[in-house]
Amino acid sequence: MFLPCLLSLCSEEQQAYWVPAARSKKVLGCYAQTELGHGSNIQALQTTATFDPATDEFIMDTPTTQAYKWWPGTLGRTANTAMVIARLLLPQESSSSSPPSYKDMGIHNFIVPLRDLHTHALLPGVVTRDIGPKIAFAGMDNGCLELHAVRIPRANLAQRFVRVTRQGVWSRVEGTHSKAAYVTMMQVRAIIVVHSARELSKACTIAIRYSAVRRQGFDDSKTGSELQILDYASQQYRLLPLLAASVGFFFCGRAVLTLLAETEDALLKGRKGQAEVGALMGRAHAALAGLKSLCTTIAADGIEECRKCCGGHGYLACSGLPELSGNFLQQCTVEGDNVLLTQQTVGYLLKSYIKWRTGGPVLDEECQYFVTAADGAHAEGLGEGGKGLRDEPAVLSLFSRRAFATLERLALRLQSLTEGEASLSQAGAWRRVLVDVMFVSRSHALYTVLRHFAAGLQSLRDGNDVSGVGKAGADAAFIQVLERLFFLFAFYHLSKEAGDFLELGLLSPEMVARVRGEVEILLGEVRPDAVALCDGWDWDDFELKSALGRWDGRYAEALLASAKREPLNHQDPVDGWDRTWQPQWKVEEQMERARL
Amino acid sequence: MFLPCLLSLCSEEQQAYWVPAARSKKVLGCYAQTELGHGSNIQALQTTATFDPATDEFIMDTPTTQAYKWWPGTLGRTANTAMVIARLLLPQESSSSSPPSYKDMGIHNFIVPLRDLHTHALLPGVVTRDIGPKIAFAGMDNGCLELHAVRIPRANLAQRFVRVTRQGVWSRVEGTHSKAAYVTMMQVRAIIVVHSARELSKACTIAIRYSAVRRQGFDDSKTGSELQILDYASQQYRLLPLLAASVGFFFCGRAVLTLLAETEDALLKGRKGQAEVGALMGRAHAALAGLKSLCTTIAADGIEECRKCCGGHGYLACSGLPELSGNFLQQCTVEGDNVLLTQQTVGYLLKSYIKWRTGGPVLDEECQYFVTAADGAHAEGLGEGGKGLRDEPAVLSLFSRRAFATLERLALRLQSLTEGEASLSQAGAWRRVLVDVMFVSRSHALYTVLRHFAAGLQSLRDGNDVSGVGKAGADAAFIQVLERLFFLFAFYHLSKEAGDFLELGLLSPEMVARVRGEVEILLGEVRPDAVALCDGWDWDDFELKSALGRWDGRYAEALLASAKREPLNHQDPVDGWDRTWQPQWKVEEQMERARL
Ligand SMILES: Cc1cc2nc3c(=O)[nH]c(=O)nc-3n(C[C@H](O)[C@H](O)[C@H](O)COP(=O)(O)OP(=O)(O)OC[C@H]3O[C@@H](n4cnc5c(N)ncnc54)[C@H](O)[C@@H]3O)c2cc1C
Ligand SMILES: Cc1cc2nc3c(=O)[nH]c(=O)nc-3n(C[C@H](O)[C@H](O)[C@H](O)COP(=O)(O)OP(=O)(O)OC[C@H]3O[C@@H](n4cnc5c(N)ncnc54)[C@H](O)[C@@H]3O)c2cc1C
Questions:
Q1: Average per-residue pLDDT for chain A
Q2: Which biological process annotations from GO are given for this protein (chains A, B) (predicted)?
């Protein structure tokens, strides 16, 4: 995070100095935003940077325990420099009184040296600590930071977008966009979406390979060989939709990277107007927030479900799944808590909705579906027009209409809560509807994943795929397998969330029953290709680090080999056994002797 | 498990010898059932116990790697004796041929000495190992066991229910019930239900207390103090239904313990006939399987959700939540995998259903609801009859009708799959419908939890509560708070699983919308009592081991104190920094010197 921040937040002069220093690892940087007391509400961060005109410096302070920076990776023992997010306090022009009074300019970014670059000793006024053991990442010294009147030169304010003059006057750098600083955050979120696909696919690979070699339970005959556990419909139902999700997230990740590249391009190359850049930023921000939230939620739950699907052996570290899961869990919290992110996406959707309903400008791609979804008259339903259930446009239309209807319901609800007699404030009403907000964001994001999934399939069919999937030879049979995954993903979620579709009148009860039946049929169809699809992700044994997910299927040998490596086994009886268990005997023997 | 097994599986003579030895910790026992290759399918275990008439011994063998015992707690380094589950092989009477042929008598229990009781050295032919690191329980040496022609006396067969004579003839002990051996397993499952309530309540206590002191996000004013995160509807929606679940599981646990006590009583005191005991066992077995599966699933997911609700700090070990979660996760797998258990419950329900439909005997308490649920005509719906939504009987009736309707649908489906031309075998059809089986079991168990929850409330209202809840003073206000939790739990699940109710025509779309609204209202009503309800569980800080869930709310101080204890912080710069980071400088300095 430190290097990307230098690149996105610092001026060219600053970058000329800091970037090579960071690249050469002389400057070991960390990104220090979160405080003990505040993570999500950045506006409430308490660390201060007070400008001192007398020395032309900022004085950095963490005034309370709550203000201590808390969490930054490498801050504990490794980093010698931090990008610190702090409130900028400028002396009031009018004030020559003592004590001087300050104006709070809000959150800004500062490069703060923490340690001597040669001796690695902490600089005066700086205290850092490792914050202690975590679920995973034992090797990462996430740290805490106290700053007590630490002085840094004025030049250490990150200056790409804002400046403070020698006199302590603040200004925005001309031609820069106020939201441009969010680009780094969006980049990281896009990478997390890609990461969700990859980590989930690893867990699926382990669990599906294992389920194909693990045999448990007799065939009808009750003798002879047992069934592969992957042949139980319940095991398929737990695993195969996750495999489908990993593929959907893959296409989705590709789409958001493209969207982001466009946005950065517009932003950095300055080829578009402020308004246009702003719109692009807003759109990318809303899209990424909702997708990051949905994809990491499904992937985190999914990795754990893969682990459970391995039975007891999934509880062993050597299965690889506990580590995969523990590492991934943080993704639901970092870079925007998953629940909070739903507010950001829905805030944007509502704004777009209201603008559009009141005759505003054309909708962007994220919201384009409002038009068709609102036009119920032209909606051809799933399974209508003789096309059967496997009808991509009908599936997309269905999910888009669900998303739109829940959004519209929310908009109306907010309106009625803020109007009339016992009306609430905007913020009060918002707090009241936060449960709906979660579900609207989820509905929108699910539709978006499906949209990107379908677009990915289309590009394969058109023969112009650029993702590398095509390279594997996107012949018709392969595309058909991916299409099954698309429908499996869609119908799995449709049947799990059937309540919405039924309540909104988008599907009939009979149709829901048919969709449920179709999920079962699809599970059976995907089953024979499941292992090959996992192999297609191309994880090697070294990357999976799993005794259960080995390419050769020899899990029993791998489990045994792993047990043999356990240090506890190198001595028997273990040291100290005589001090812990033997005394029981000793006491008894003494008593017996006493009795003699 | 070892001691309970001695008590339930061994004859009185055997108990007289082994029980005192185990109680005095001379005999350190473990329960060795699971093998590397088999857990769920006990019928396929491969360890053998071959009777040798020549020496009057059993010869114990684990013939393949897959047969190695794998997982038993304390087996690795601690246990000196194991209760080993193995196939009993008896020489065929007719066979005087060499090699002799054996008859496989199926799974039996054997007491196998593993180590010398005095020196703790492994006995000849025995190999044990610790199986390596796990998600949690680092202190427990779950182990693996190889047995190579290990001889044990014939007397070491657990003989409460079966005997083998000196001549190698097998017989069942008269007057014992064939299923009696399952009692231990049921006891453990009942304890797990109780445990689900307790562990979930711990996680809720941590997360809810923290949510009441954690402030994040401004009130409308955008200045001044921030909101408690527990005041966001989304946070309430994630946490309060879990608190309600913990209370529901508490009542449920009490009910299953009572049921089990009845069953044991009937079994052990021999006051009832074989058929009656069999019925009671079947009923308890089915009830416990489904409840263990549902309660541990909800509790495991719920503990993790509580962790996520604490944001980044929930990822720290000192929050107490990672350990709580890691420890609990095994409960979804041990003592019957949660998915497999659904088959056991539904198998029982289907049998009862078919017997009943074909004019069979009266239904037991678990299935009593079939009668009213099938009788649609007399069903008074939720919100009908002017009672509003908070109508316990109507809620119970609704959930029972859902469970019944899904069960009936499954029964019809199985019938149609096994009849007609392209019909499947019973087992083949069963494998096909396993997804439905999961959902039917869940629906039944959810109804059962609600039934026990409502019965618990009724006993409080009647003033004859025996659980200890009443002791806290079951006044009307307290009962009202618990009633809110009942409705919150019910309506939360109703709205999440609304698809079923709508598809089955049990609720109208308007009603589902009302139920959703009611969930929000209930969240607001429960909110003010949430912390007090947690306090009511009476966990002290020592038991919670959580920096976030402290009784005094001082989480910031606790986090900081915990960081200060981290050993990494006792030295700065850390040892070895010069070998890892400094070289960057060295290289550069040398280059500069070279240039001079
Ligand atoms: C492994 C790891 C690495 C990290 N690395 C870094 C790093 O390098 N640098 C750095 O600066 N930080 C880092 N962080 C911190 C991370 O960015 C924060 O944890 C994250 O932003 C969430 O903030 P929080 O922990 O304060 O949660 P909180 O905001 O306190 O959230 C707690 C709960 O309250 C809810 N909530 C909060 N506000 C609202 C609201 N307005 N409406 C509804 N609900 C709300 C949340 O949904 C959540 O359930 C790291 C964290 C972890 C776990
Ligand atoms: C912490 C811990 C402690 C333990 N302690 C002990 C102990 O002291 N003594 C002991 O003997 N054992 C112990 N065990 C082992 C435990 O009992 C088994 O792990 C458990 O019975 C599950 O069996 P399995 O691991 O073989 O899973 P499997 O049966 O291999 O299950 C793997 C997957 O296949 C599915 N599956 C299997 N069969 C079917 C079927 N017929 N239909 C549909 N799906 C199916 C399951 O749902 C699961 O998803 C312990 C395990 C753990 C994790």
A1: 92
A2: fatty acid beta-oxidation using acyl-CoA oxidase; lipid homeostasis
Concatenate the DSSP letters of all residues of B132-187 into one string. --BSS-TTS--EEEEESSEEEEGGGB--SSEEE-TT--EEEPTT--TTGGGHHHHH
- Confidence label for B585 from pLDDT (cuts 50, 70 and 90): low
- A73 labeled binding residue: yes
Q: Using a CB–CB cutoff of 8 Å, tell me whether B528 touches chain A.
A: no
Query: Scanning every residue of chain A, which has its alpha carbon at the shortest distance from the alpha carbon of B337?
Result: A311
Length of chain B: 596
Nearby residues of A184 by Cβ (< 8 Å), 6 or more positions away: A1, A4, A5, A7, A8, A9
Q: Is B121 on the interface with A (CB under 8 A)?
A: yes
A-proximal residues of B, 304-323, CB under 8 Å:
304, 308, 311-312, 314-318, 322
Q: In terms of domains, do B324 and B279 share one?
A: yes
Question: Residue B228 forms beta bridges with which residues?
Answer: B215
From the number of C-beta atoms within 10 Å of its C-beta (0-12, 13-18, 19+), residue A2 rates as buried
Last residue of a domain, one of B126, B141, B174: B174
Residues of B in contact with A77 (CB under 8 A): 568, 572-574, 577
Question: pLDDT tens-digit profile of A142-181?
Answer: 999 999 999 999 999 999 999 999 999 999 998 777 677 7
Residue A340 Cβ inside 6 Å of ligand 1? The answer reads yes
- Cβ contacts of B39 on chain A, cutoff 8 Å: 216, 311-312
Q: Which residues of B are catalytic?
A: 335
How many domains does the structure of chain A reveal?
Answer: 2
CA angle B466, B472, B475 (to 5 degrees): 95
Tens-place pLDDT, residues A501-540: 999 999 999 999 999 999 999 999 999 999 999 999 999 9
**Euclidean distance between CA atoms A483 and A390, whole angstroms:** 9
Same-domain check for residues A412 and A485: yes
- Residues of chain B neighbouring A519 (CB-CB closer than 8 A): 435
Is residue B72 lining ligand 2, measured as CB closer than 6 Å? yes
- Residue A317: which domain range? 184-364+390-416+437-534
Q: Give the orientation angle of helix B274-309 with respect to helix B434-461, to 10 degrees.
A: 90
Q: Are residues A111 and A197 in the same domain?
A: no
CATH of the domain at B358: 1.20.140.10
Ligand 1 neighbourhood includes B214 CB (under 6 angstroms): yes
Substitution target from B333, B340, B586 for chain A, most A beta carbons within 10 A = B333
Is B233 in Cβ contact with A435 (below 8 Å)? yes
Helices (H), B270-368: 274-309, 321-329, 338-357
Which has the closest alpha carbon to B416: B406, B427, B429?
B429
- CB of A35 closer than 8 Å to CB of A147: no
The interface predicted TM-score (ipTM) is 0.96
CA separation for the pair A57, A62 (Å, rounded): 16
Q: Counting ligands in written order, which one lies closest to the CA of residue B311?
A: 1
pLDDT of B471 strictly over 60 = no
- With CB atoms and an 8 Å threshold, state whether B129 touches A569: yes
Q: Which of A204, A210, A215, A216 to mutate to test ligand 2, by most ligand atoms within 8 A of the CB atom?
A: A216
**Chain A contacts of B222, Cβ < 8 Å?**
43
